[in-house]
Structures are given as C-alpha cells and as structure tokens.
Sigma 54-interacting transcriptional regulator (Sporolactobacillus sp. Y61), 942 residues
Amino acid sequence: MKRIDRIYQRLKNKCEELTKKQLLEKEGFSAKELSDDLNILRNNVSMELNNLVRSGQVIKIKQRPVLYIPRDTVRNNFGTIVDQTILDIPSLKERYLAKKPADIEKNKDPFSLLIGSDGSLKKITGQAKAAVVYPPRGLHTLILGPTGSGKTLFAHMMHSYAKYMKRMDEDSPFVVFNCADYYNNPQLLISQIFGHVKGAFTGAETDKQGLVEKADGGILFLDEVHRLPPEGQEMIFYFMDTGHFNRLGETDKRRQAHVLIISATTEDPSSSFLNTFLRRIPITITMPSFHERQAKEKVDLTKYLLSKEARRIHKEIKVDENVIKALIGSVTFGNVGQLKSNIQFVCAQGFLDSMDKPFVDLHLKMLPQEMKEGFSLISRNVKENELISNVVGQTTVITGEGSKDLVEDDVYELPFDMYKIIEDKANLLKQENVDPAEINRFVATDIKIHIKSFYQQISKSPNRKLAKLVDKRVMNLAEELRSLAESMLNRTFNDKFLYFISLHLDGLLKRKNRPAAGMPSPHDRLIDEQADEYLVATKMKEVIEDKFNLTLPKIEIMYLAILLDSAKELNNKGKVGIVVATHGDSTASSMVSVTCELLGDYNVKAVDMPLDVSFHVILNEIVAAVKTVDHGEGVLMLVDMGSLYYSEDKIQERSGIPIKSIDQVSTPMVLDAVRKANFLDMDLPGIYDSLKNPERTEEDEVISHSERMQGKKKAILTICSSGQGTARKIEELIRSYLNDLTDEPIKVIPLSILNLNQQAQELRKKYHIIASIGVKKPNIAAPFISLEHFIEGEGQSIMEKALQGQKVTGQKDSNKIVRSLCEDSLKKMLTYLNPWRAIPTLLHFCHQLERVWSVHLKNTATLRIVVHTAFALERAISGDVLHYSGPVSDEKREWLKKVRKASEVIDKELKIHLSDEELYYLVDLLQDEFSMALQNTNDQTK
C-alpha cells in the first residue's frame, strides 16, 4: 500500500471510531497524531495530507494545530454541509450548527410535518409508528419504493418519532450506511457493518468498531440493502434474532447491541434477499411514487421545495399556476428527487432573469421544452388539472418562511451555492461588457451543467450502479455484447440483461480459466446448438476471448445462450396495454378514471378527442399512447366510433406494436377489459374475443376446453423464475387445497420461466392443464392466476371454475391457503403454543372480527392478525405481558369492547385470557388493517 493510501486509511479509521458527537468535538486529527500512529515523519505525513486536500478526499480544518478529516466522513455523518469546491474551513462544528436544520418541536408528532401524513402516507405512517413503539425495542422494517420517493426521509422520521415517544434517548444515534458502496468487496462491507479485529484481512492493521456498535441504542439505516451479499444477510438476520454479533475475524467474544434496523431498497425483495432474511423483517412499508400522491400533496410538495429556494435566494418567488402544473407534469421517473432538480433549475433561470428585481418571477414561457410538455400532459388530464387549479391561485407568492429542513443529510441537496455562482459569473461577464442576452444564455447553460452533473452523481441509473460493481472495461464490453446481441437477434435487451452479462464477465476475469462452480456439464443439451441464441453466444465468446485474452470452455457458450434466452423471456413478461379513445373533451378520461378508482392503477391510458382538433393530431397522440402502454404483449384499443376503428392497421404500422380495436366502448367494457388483462392475465387475442363475444362466458371457455381434453390426466402448473423455491411452495399449498376439494388425482408440476412456453406445450400433449399459477403466464388455453392473487386468496374462484365438472367430495375450506401460510409462519417461532391447535381458534377469532366490523379481510391481513395474536398468547402463557403506553381515546375504548367480545372464542377454546393492554396493541393493528378493508367494502357497495 502506498504511503498516501496508508495515511488516508488511518485517518479514516480513526474518524470512524468516533461517534457523531465526538467527531463534532474532535473535528479531525493532526499530522502529528497520524505520524505517531504510523511511525512516519510528520513532515511527510503533512505533505501527503495536503495532497489529499488538493485531490478533494480530505478537508482541512484551519485551527492550531491544523486538523484533517475525510470528506466522506463529513458527508456520511453531517450531510452535504461542505461544498465540493471548498478545501478548508475554520471549524466543522460551527459550520454544522450553522447549517443544521431546526429541531423538530419536542411536543409535536414528527410525522405530522410530512406532507401527505393524513393522505397518501396515512397508512404507512401508521405502520411506521407501530414498528417504532412495538415492545420491547421496535420491529425491524424494510422500506420499499422507487428512487427519490423519500425512503431516507421516512426512516429519519421514524427515528424522530421514537425519540418523541420516549422509546429512544434524545441523543440516540441514527447511522446511515449505503450497502452499494462496498458491493464489490463483501469482506470490507461486512467489516463496515460489524467491525473487524486486527489481522482479520489484508490491510486490517488495527481493531475497528462497526456501524452496529455505533448505532447501539438507536437506528441503523441500511440503504440499497439488496446489495448485501448472502453472508452479510445471514450475519444481519442472526443479529436481528439475538442482538449478538462478532467483529470480522473474531471467534471468542460475543458482543451485544440494541439496534433497530431499517432497510431500504428499490428492488423486488423476493428476488433480492434470502427468505431467512425477509422472515426477520415483520414490517414492510411501501412508499408511493410521486404520481400516486394526491393532487393537493403534489402541489404542497412543489410549494415546499420552492420555499426552500426562496429562503436561499432571500427573495420572494412569484410563480404562475401553469408553472406549478408543468413542474408536476414533468416528473417522469425520479419522483420527489426529480421534482427538486427541476425546481432548482427553474429557480436558477428565474433568479438570473430577475437579478435586478426585488422578487423572482417564474412563468411558463421561460421553461425548457420538456417541462412545457409536462404542462400539456396535466392539461389533457381533465380531473387532475381541475384538482390542481382548485388549490392553486393564478399567481402564488412563495416566501422562505416555514421551509425548515427535516433532515441533515439530504442527498438531493446541492453541495454548492448555486445562486452565488450565478451572481458572480453574471457580474464578471457584465464587467467584460458582454451582451445581457449572451450573459443569460451562458450562465443558464453553465448552471444546467452544474445541476445535471450533480444529479448524475446521485442517480440510480444502471450505468452508475455498474460503475461501482465492475471494472470500466467490463462495462464497456457488456454494452458492446448487448449491441451485438440486439443486432444479430433483432431484439431489445433491457438493463437487467446488462447487469447479468456485466457481473458474469467480472466473474470470468476473477476466476480466469477455472470453470464456474455449479455449471452444467458440456453434455447437457440445455439449448439446441442450432438455436439463434447459441450462434450469437458463440460470437460473444470470441469477442470476450479477444478482449480479455482468455480461453473459455465450450460450456461458456451454453451459459451465454441461456442468458440470452432468459432475457428474452423476461422481456416478454408484461400485461396487455389498453388505450381508450373517444370523441369529446373528457369522455375517455372519465371512463379510465372510474376504472382506476374501482380496480386500482393499471396500464390503461385515455385519449380525449375534442371535435375541433384535427384527426392528424389525434392520430399522433394515439400512437404515442400505444407506445406508452405497450409492455411487449400488444395493445387493445377501445374506441367510440368513426375513423379510429378503421385506423387499426395505420396505428399498428406507425407504432410497430400489435393492435386490436373494438368500437362502441362503454365504462363496463373498460372495466371488463382491465379485469381480464390485469387479474386474469389474458392475452390480447383472448381479451379481444371475449369482449367481441360477451355471450360466451369464462365458464363456457373452461367447460369447452375441458370437453376437448377428456381422457387426459389433469395437471396444474406452478411457475417461478427457477422452478424451485416459490414454485415448490405453491405446489405444497395447492395440494393441501385440492385434497379437501376433490378426490380426483391432479398432478401439480413446478416449472421455471426459462423456455416456459415450450415446456408448457410439451406438457399439454400429455396432460389436461386446467390452470397455471405463478409469476408468468404460459401461452396455453387455460386460466392463469398470478402469484399475488393466489396468495391473497382472490384466485380461488378461478381455481374452482377450472375444477368444474369434477367430482367434489368435501366441503370447500376457504381458509385452506391462509391456514397453510399461518402454519408455515408460526411452527418455527412459537415456544409454548401448539400452532396446529391454536390456528383454528385464531382463524375463528379473525372471522368474529370480520362479523363485528362487517368487512372481509384479505389473506395477508388475516396472516398479520393471526401472527400478532399468537405472540400475545405466548406472552400470556409465559407471564411476560406487555404494558400499553400509547394514548387511549374514547374511540379506541369502543374498539377494545368489540375486540374483547370477539376474543371470547380464544378464552373458550384455548382457555387463555388476553389482558386489555395486550388487546390495545391489537386495536392499533386492527385500526390500520380495517381502515383499508372498510374502504374496499364501501367501494364495492357504491
């Protein structure tokens, strides 16, 4: 290791051994301290530290003696309080206190400060509060949500709420760790979390405290937690279970810490985590995207972000109503983070235009084209346009008052004073007598580059992620191979393929000519050698060998071919898109709005056709809408009348997407189409035929198909990515369900999505396939139940129709699937209670609750209530009863009476009595669960 690297690493290690409070007091370390530690001449240490300052890795604190601190340490502990361009500061503590957000009011619920806490965030706020106050030290939580949706802010609010409720001390730590930073070095990643002892690995020159120890008594927030390697997940879930851990390289000592772990990810947890890890996280919170927020919340978020800019500018901002609509409409992928970026750019432009005025004026004409398109998008959405207009005046005056920061380390906060840069550059150019219009153009371009560059640094784009994982030449070759495959196969490969191929290439480099563990033998004919994918894989192997100077075994061709084929399957996965196009100003929008309210958001788009707009313009909008909703399964067009019905071929030609059109559209038809596309996963021809022939019912289809398949043994397919794991679990649940319903032998066959259609067609020759269940619909004439609808219990009616005509010997048990899920969850967790004896009573208890409140609970809600009550019964048996510390309102007392009445079945059947304090915790859970169930019931009644 070079001298400069040794010095930097020692400085970083010494800083990481300090708490946040200790860092503020200490501020950094002197050259002499490092010199004594490393036994290097002080002058040499000082020289290298100044080199690190010039390179931007270290910040100099100009005190006596001069102190040094790594820039990453400052950012990780205190946020972006030091501009990247600043190399030295007088005092870290003074700078932090100057930029520190105002303390959240001690006697005010921190969540009440969140925009949407009484709206779109109400349910997840309830979940978060329950997780924080759950005895004895809260429940570990996983926060899901797209980039920029506010996961980190929400975790901060959970910490503030824990302090507000006195569940954590005022000085309890909130430690943030981004698992992506060390993804390509699992050993170092685990060392960061748990610490290490001297000599644990090369470069471990001293003992080091891990983040778990630093977070003792508080919260450890693991961002991008899907980057944890399996061994890291195992260590984390052992710590969750026991509270004990060892530092890396330590075998004798057993350390202990009390830490609430909050994790966040943008990925699908079922495909990114070990099941054992997920089972340890009882609370999962899903953050809504910006587009899922209520219209008023979108406006309030926009005003709040504008007020933060007004505070920085020290001027009022006068903003036109149409600018607010444009800002809201231009958010496409980055959620609140993207909104903030757009607002910063617009305010920068407005500040430049208004430097000689007492206020900043924002109007539609000054916006770039992409934001003007956002305004057009909102204008075409009649309902949202009206909702926004109702809460926004024609001109809104924004001040900097009340725009307090809620967190210190907002990653979307610009690390430089944008307005100071504008002012300085504009004044400099004025002194050179540059034309004002030219000044405006130059500075605006410069600021746009500044902002764009910053947001690219924190963006979650695939290339940005890959840059942390693999060597740059690997990433470049992966792009080259993707282009080669797209050219030879005439297909598009998404970013997921780029990940797969990059990580595989990175593995090839690391293991050179050693065969990959677990690879099939060269004799296994997984893909025909005449297949197009195999021929492309052969070419890819030649390119890899040439670039990396490697000799690859023949089996590598087979692996690459499988990768290409799997990517094809994944690309094909999607649902049929639907476009509703009608004449009039809002007819189509109204139909789609009603459909989304009743059936939830789906891939359906409305195109309104005002009578005074030319057909050519409308046709362009239709083509754009078709491209937007297509996910690889084609698009169904529902139109009212006229030329559009006869323009199917023209739209298909211009979009390059399979189209089917049906005229005389109505709201019931749109509802039926969405139901069949989303809930029944029917393909485009199937939906088209069923809507064109409404007299032919689904029962007719099933019976007709059954008649054609007489004489063949019946089978059900279960489908997941590998044919193992999930597919096997579904098989187990189905078998128990079928055993109670019919005595006819039905074979359950697990399949993977690889070559799914080919496998299904082969099985169809041998079996009468009555249904398929899982993650992807095979291309066969049989009902399909998606995995989520099967688990929720909504697929049971489809299963019953599939079984029509068979001899039913037993009474249908509608609780069979949820009973199996409960048994699976409880049999490994209970100590005193017999799950097989308790579960019937607990399900009876849930049924009583449904009767009392006149609601129907989905399986997932029933499962949560059963598990919660089972643990309450365990505590009652052991005498370790909880003491309820939350507020008790009159409404909550009324709920308690009803829960007590329903719990009589537990007293009677299990002879166990639950205290009022235990039941109050159950009331908190039920209020959250039943609010949604009651809403669903009301919607259905309407």
